[in-house]
Amino acid sequence: MKVLVTGANGMLGQDLCPILEESGCFVIKTDIDNLDITNKKETIETIEKIRPDLIIHCAAYTNVDKAETDEKNAHLINAVGAENIALGAKNTDSTLVYISTDYVFDGKKSTPYLPTDKPNPLSVYGKTKLEGEKMVQKYCTKYYIARTSWLYGINGKNFVETMISLATKPELKVVNDQRGCPTWTVELIRGILKLLNKPYGIYHICGSNSTTWYEFAKTIFEKENLKVNLIPCTSDEFKQIAKRPSYSVLDNDNIARPWKDALDDYLRLRKDN
């Protein structure tokens, strides 16, 4: 199978491409250096030239706080970029996997969000990712929208690495009023591969069970045997620029393992690198 990956140099893409190659796929890696997804003509022509069986669209504007003051670029990459990819996929009859986010929801539920629940994003990031979802649905019939959450991986800046790097601070405050599902990139990739045997549509791929950022940090330190003066705080205290949903737990239909099990594997892996 010929697979085109966008955002191949990102945290998810760097884990995704080798796993696809190991499974026997011929992988075409693209990133900003060889494909500008915001350029409609270039994107469509590239896809038509390659004619992939599958496109996994990982490229995205992911800086949630910066997006609040950089809405133009966030929209250009997350919405217009997704539209261009979707148009190319339509023209070549390629299956498209679009990576989306739990931040398309407003957090007002108290039970896990289903793929069928109505989105209502609170942030520019969430709004532009939802626009991307709509573009995929508008132009493609062969698509999977894979919403994930609280993503971390060995090849990028992430919450696990940030917490470990801050472990020596005399005091560390972490938000305790946002609940979600931590997801290791490898678990997301395994979930994506499972999707390919399912009907087209919207799915949630995230670590099973849920936690808060504070509880997540506490678990990391416990597993790493680090003694840290960890203090829970509210989102208001932390003064995040973008508004996050207080509850963004996704119902993943058991497509991935419990997040603590995945974290164990990640922590073992990082010691070997």
Verbal overview:
The protein has 273 residues and is α/β, with parallel strands linked by helices. It contains 9 helices and 12 strands. The chain has helices at 11-22, 40-50, 71-92, 124-139, 159-165, 185-195, 213-223, 235-238, 259-272, and strands at residues 2-6, 26-29, 54-57, 95-101, 143-148, 151-152, 172-175, 179-180, 183-184, 201-204, 211-212, 230-233. The protein has a 6-stranded parallel β-sheet with strand order 2-1-3-4-5-10, sandwiched between helices. Strands 6-9 form a two-stranded parallel sheet. The protein has a two-stranded parallel sheet with strand order 7-12. The model has no long low-confidence stretch (mean pLDDT 96).
Give a short summary of the structure:
With 273 residues, the chain is of the alpha/beta class. It is built from nine helices and twelve strands.
Write down the secondary-structure element order: EHEHEHEHEEHEEEHEEHEHH
Report the count of strand segments.
Answer: 12
Determine the mean pLDDT. 96
CATH structural class:
Alpha Beta
Q: Judging from the principal axes of the Cα atoms, what is the shape?
A: globular
- Largest sheet entry: 6 strands, parallel
Radius of gyration: 18 Å
Tally of DSSP helical segments: 9
CATH superfamily: NAD(P)-binding Rossmann-like Domain
**Kindly, what is the distance between the CA atoms of the first and last residues, rounded to a whole number of angstroms?**
30 Å
Q: Class by helix and strand content?
A: alpha/beta
Helix residue percentage: 25-40%
Low-confidence stretches: none
| Fraction of residues in β-strands | 15-25%
Indicate how many domains the architecture comprises: 1
Q: Please tell me the CATH architecture by its name.
A: 3-Layer(aba) Sandwich
Strand order, sheet with most strands:
2-1-3-4-5-10
CATH fold-level topology = Rossmann fold
